[in-house]
Structure formats: C-alpha cells, structure tokens
From TrEMBL, chain A:
Keyword Nuclease: no
Species assigned in the record: Gluconobacter frateurii NRIC 0228
Organism ancestry: Bacteria, Pseudomonadati, Pseudomonadota, Alphaproteobacteria, Acetobacterales
Function summary: Allows the formation of correctly charged Gln-tRNA(Gln) through the transamidation of misacylated Glu-tRNA(Gln) in organisms which lack glutaminyl-tRNA synthetase. The reaction takes place in the presence of glutamine and ATP through an activated gamma-phospho-Glu-tRNA(Gln).
Keywords: ATP-binding, Ligase, Nucleotide-binding, Protein biosynthesis
Catalytic center residues: 79 (charge relay system), 159 (charge relay system), 183 (acyl-ester intermediate)
NCBIfam families with a match to the protein in the record: gatA
Record keyword Protein biosynthesis present: yes
Domain Amidase: 25-470
A Pfam short name: Amidase
Family: Belongs to the amidase family. GatA subfamily.
Subunit structure: Heterotrimer of A, B and C subunits.
Entry's EC annotation: 6.3.5.7
SUPFAM superfamilies for this protein: Amidase signature (AS) enzymes
Protein's name according to its UniProt entry: Glutamyl-tRNA(Gln) amidotransferase subunit A
Automatic annotation (TrEMBL), chain B:
Region (Disordered): 55-95
One GO molecular-function entry: glutaminyl-tRNA synthase (glutamine-hydrolyzing) activity
Compositionally skewed regions (Basic and acidic residues) per UniProt: 61-85
Subunit structure, as described in the record: Heterotrimer of A, B and C subunits.
Family: Belongs to the GatC family.
Coiled-coil stretches noted in the UniProt entry, renumbered to this chain: none
SUPFAM superfamilies: Glu-tRNAGln amidotransferase C subunit
Reactions catalysed: L-glutamyl-tRNA(Gln) + L-glutamine + ATP + H2O = L-glutaminyl-tRNA(Gln) + L-glutamate + ADP + phosphate + H(+); L-aspartyl-tRNA(Asn) + L-glutamine + ATP + H2O = L-asparaginyl-tRNA(Asn) + L-glutamate + ADP + phosphate + 2 H(+)
One Gene Ontology biological process: regulation of translational fidelity
Top-level taxonomic group: Bacteria
Protein name: Aspartyl/glutamyl-tRNA(Asn/Gln) amidotransferase subunit C
Amino acid sequence: MSGMHDFTLASARDALKARKISAVELTNAHLDAIERLDGRLNSFITRTPDQARVAAKAADEVLAKGEGGALTGIPLGIKDLFCTNGVRTTAASKILGNFVPPYESTVTSNLLRDGAVFLGKLNLDEFAMGSANLTSAFGPVENPWKRNGSDAKLVPGGSSGGSAAAVAAGLVLGATGTDTGGSIRQPAAFTGIAGIKPTYGRCSRFGTIAFASSLDQAGPMARNLQDCAILLESMAGFDERDSTSVDTPVPNYEAALTRGVRGLRVGIPKEYHAPGMPAEIEALWQQGINWLKAAGAEIVDISLPHTKYGLPTYYIAALAEASSNLARYDGVRFGERVNGSSLDALYEATRAAGFGEEVKRRILIGTHVLSSGYYDAYYLRAQKVRTLIQRDFLSAYENVDVILTPTAPSGAFAQDEKPTDPVQMYLNDVFTVPASMAGVPALSVPAGLDAQGVPLGLQLIGKFFDEETLIAAGHVIEQAASFTHRPAIHAGVSA
Amino acid sequence: MSLDAKTVTRIARLARIGLEPGEVDALGKEMGSIIDWVEQLNEVDVTDVPPMIGTGLAKPRLREDRVTDGNRRDDVLSNAPDREGPFYTVPKVVE
C-alpha cells in the first residue's frame, strides 16, 4: 500500500470523495506507518488507533452516501496542547501526565465536525516552551531529515515539533500546531513542510492549554499550503467562549491559492539581515524575492525599526503571562500532586516535581518581571515596546501588502548541538516573534535545502485577517521552489 | 549580573516552586543572564507610548445573562488528584 503515502491531504480528500480509496484503508496505512516509524521519531505522546478505526469506518459510511464534510476520512494528528474529550492531554508535562479532559477544544471540535479522523496526540516542548522539542517530559522528537552522509539526530524545531515530524514523515496528512512566538513556523521550516500562524483571534483558544494568552494562536501544519488552507478553513471561526475571538467570516482559503501575486507589493525589511546569518539563507531569501518578482510582484524595501527588540519584549511579555497562566497547576483540582505538610508545602512540592527545568525558569522570570518594584521597569516597558513593534508593521502595510523574510536563522541542528545558554536558544525565533507580537498572520513554506541537505523555509507576514494573500504569495514560492524532496525517514520509504 | 540567592529564593517562594539548595546558584546565573539581555529595552524611547494590552481586534461584547453550562460536578471532579465524595482534599489549613 505504498501509494497510500503519496497523497497530500487534498488529493486524499478527492480520492475519498471519488471512492477510489476508503477511509479505513487510508487510516490503516497511516497507523501502520506510525507503528513502524514512531518508536524512533517519538512524534506521538498518545496514539488512539482504536478510536481512529471507528471514526474511519463511520467516515466510509458517510462517504458511501455521497455526503461528508471537508475533512471526512482524513487522518490528522493533534498537538497535545488541545484538550480532547476523554483522551489524555498532557502539554508534554509531567504535571498533566494523567489529565483526561472532560471536554473538547473548539479547534478540534471544528475538525471533528468536518469529519477528520484523529490518530493521536502529538509531542511538543513542555507547555509549548521551547524551539527544539527537547523540553518534553515524554522525550525529544527526532527530525525525520538527515544531513548528507550523517546519522546525527536533528531536532524538528519547536514547540510544535511532534506535529512537524509526523507530517514530514508521512505519519499524518496534517496536524494542528500552536504558535506563540514561532512554534508553528520554525518547526515547519526545520522539517520541510508548510505552516500557518493565523491572525490573533482567527482560531479560538478555548480548550487549548494556555502559555501566553495574548500571543497563543492555533494553526495548521501540512505538506503544502493547499492542505494548510483546507485545514485552516475548518479550524477558524468565531467562538463566544474565547473573549479574544474575532467575529469575522471565514473565507474559502483554498480558492485563494491560485490568485497569483501580479501587482502585489512585497516588503523586504532591512533589519532581517541579521549579523552572522548563514550566506545560504541570505541567498534563499534573494531567491524568494526573484521568484515573486518573476511572478509579477513589486519588491519594496521597507524598515521595521524595532525588530531587534522583538525577542527581549517577547520574553518579558510571554513569560509574565506564562507565570500567571501556569499558577493553576497547584495539585489541588487536577494534575499530579505531591503531598506536603501544609497547603503551601503541597504547592511547592507539586510544582517542583511536576514542571521541567525550562518551564520553571520561565515561570520564575515571569514572576520576577511582574513582582512589586519590577513591574514598571520590565513588564510595563515591554508592553509599550510591543506597541512600537505593532506600529512598525501597521505603517509598513500602508505601503506593502505582504512581507517576505527567512523563517529561521539556521536549518535544523543536532540534538547534541543544543546551545547551553538559554538566550542562544531563544534566537531561533528572532524572525518569527515580531509578527506574533503584532498579532498579524504569517506562514512558512519550504523553499530549498541547505548545503547539508536540510530544509530551509521562507516566511511571509501579512495584514490582519489577510491570510488569503499570504496563501496566494506562498503558493507562488511553493511552485517556483518545486520542493518535492522527502526526508530520510518517511512512511513511503521501505526500511 | 547573577541574581543573588536571596532574590532567587524570594521569587521561587512567590511562584510556589520548591527549590533544592543546590539549584539556587545555577538558576540565579541563568536568570541573571536573561535579565541582562532584556535590559536592552531601556534604550527604547517609550515616552507617551501606550502599553499594548492585546491586539484590540476583538470587540468587547455582551451576552444574555443566562447559564450556558453547568451541572457537571462529576466531570469537574474527574481529574482531582485526591477527593472525598464531591470535595477536593487539601492538607489542614486551620489548626
């Protein structure tokens, strides 16, 4: 059944509707691939094969009647940050190691409404805090890509590293991710797939475990932008249970794919020429400029003067919010508990044992910047700088429609090359964080391989709620790059 | 600059995260280096700049004052690490 692993989400959907394949055989082929490859990749925390087979059978019954939604019978993976009714949801943390939500997140409800088949819950950095999927309490995820002539285990990026690896290896046809400062786009770039971080407020946050609520946004990850567009259309939409959800119609994103870029004004921000950036990333960026120009876009040099302050602003704002959000894990109402002689001793023992190092470090810094005497100097100042970062984008959009940059300052690095200095690790997100701070949508598309054979991505950043233009411009890059490479570890490759 | 042991201990107490004595120095160093790095925001002129609280895209809204969910006691208690009947348990708070 190797042909089963050549489908994109869109082509599988069409084959299912035409009854050329059944949902059961499609799901079984993917479950088999997980069985074969995921012992090694570790992209799943929880597999749900029995539920998947039941859902696939139901999908076939619906399809046989000529009915069904946009995703009927499509096997997906769900980042283990989305609450799934009756299925363990861990946030890759020991503290939620046995948490079984009695309700469904809005994003996953929407996907189920449209007929998707969930194969399980995907690994991530603990509470989505990390850029290499090395902080999960359930072990690191291996990137299915290899450097030429090397068997070194590469990181898949993070925090949606399990989602990225599972899609890249062909274990699922698409996955949900969440992006707080780059957690969809950077892993997508590291694994040669596409990912969209929508406008803040486009997808409901209800039932998604919170990291930094003013930044967290769910989005799709898949092999290409057509697949992402189909997923986003299902995931997006107004939800009265999220006070920051925006009540604006969900367009037909798939239809935007072939709009082209003729006459589109594409901004190139000079501040993204980061010192020390590898020459091949500079070259790929130039290649992207040439591709868009050749397709009829107009290239405009722009300035986003506060770019260099994006990361430090992010680490204050996000960590402050995280320290507040993660206060709920106290061992009383849900989650793991470590007993103590007093209530405070119980809290301290529970949180000391339940959280990993990176999460503790972030909670402590967040607590510090919010504490009396430091609030104005750190937190309030960061919120003001955030206003300036957003203004940079809003004034750029008076003159351009979309902005093109590299997604990350490097390709995937090896698990044992992890920087020991936390600040060095944070620099992975230097190009993705500013769009998150501003709340504008952005995506990453695979655009080429580096000299070592590892994928690199380009990022497009758009105007509020203009995901359609992003998808159209991204598709032009996709077509020009004709990225058809596959990773060394893939469901369609026999071992 | 490294945060001193007293500061780290005070922050950990506020965050209700128990630390082993051996962890304090290393954490002070790491947190200090992150704090030093974010100090670069002091270069930015923020005079008359309002703080950004959110993106401001969602309009505040009102809804009818009625119960939309509830009567789910067993669901709510289903993940309790320890309980007695319909109650969560905690160590004795009042002596």
